[in-house]
Design goal:
heterodimer, A: 116 residues, mainly beta, 7-stranded mixed beta sheet, 4-stranded antiparallel beta sheet, 11 strands, 49% strand, B: 111 residues, 5-stranded antiparallel beta sheet, 53% strand, globular
């Protein structure tokens, strides 16, 4: 069964460093998302991406964050200058349809980011 | 601010017990409610997408109901097994494709 994959599974970085989290969505999916879960808190939406553009972003997704689909398979989340409060589990998800509430979003296993 | 709440936060049951938990969400501007099952170190697994008031969906021993007028959904597990141990997440679909998640119910089933 097709699945969303994410690399790395864990990343430790120093405050102020740039990190790039990578995701390979399911191959025929067109709509991509990033979510994150800070330890002990709810999973929260960061950004959705379709047709090489951001469709929607949350207040969390400020200028320090960017997303890119550099080729036909990868979808990346870059944090330019990490802060301690960026420590979280970051999930990538993808869906087949665009803006369809009935459409399942398929999640990857997450990247645990720790900022020291 | 849209808020999704789940209760209880955690649940410990014995193998064979049936159990249920609740997801509460805004009753206005409803599009869909998604249920996920999340085991540690694995991807959250989609269980159900519920869209219509009165919807009932079933997958094996797990079923869910939906009441959009009063803003709640119940997830039931019949005859819990140790492999059902996981965190169960509900998520309210909002405009722009974003899912707004509850905090999850952590289920532990003891043999």
């Amino acid at each position: 069964e097709p699945e969303v994959t994410q690399t790395p599974s864990h990343q430790v970085t120093q405050m102020g460093q740039e990190v790039i989290l990578r995701c390979v969505p399911i191959s025929n999916h067109l709509y991509f998302y990033w979510y994150r879960q800070i330890l002990g808190q709810k999973v929260e939406f960061l950004v959705s991406f379709y047709n090489n553009e951001i469709s929607e972003k949350s207040e969390i997704f400020d200028d320090q964050f960017s997303v890119e689909r550099p080729d036909g398979s990868n979808f990346t989340l870059k944090i330019r200058s990490t802060k301690l409060e960026d420590s979280a589990m970051y999930f990538c998800a993808s869906s087949e349809a665009h803006l369809d509430s009935r459409e399942t979003q398929y999640f990857g296993p997450g990247t645990r980011l720790l900022v020291l | 601010i849209l808020n999704v709440e789940q209760s209880p936060q955690s649940l410990h049951v014995q193998e064979g017990d049936s159990t249920n938990f609740t997801c509460s969400f805004p009753s206005s501007n409803f599009y869909a409610l998604h249920w996920y099952r999340w085991e540690t170190a694995k991807s959250p697994e989609a269980l159900f997408v519920m869209t219509l008031n009165g919807d009932e969906k079933k997958k094996g021993r797990i079923s869910a109901t939906l009441n959009t007028k009063e803003g709640y959904s119940y997830l039931y597990i019949k005859g819990s097994q140790p492999e059902d141990s996981a965190t169960y997440l509900c998520a309210f679909y909002n405009q722009g494709g974003k899912l707004i998640f509850g905090q999850g119910t952590e289920l532990s089933v003891k043999p």
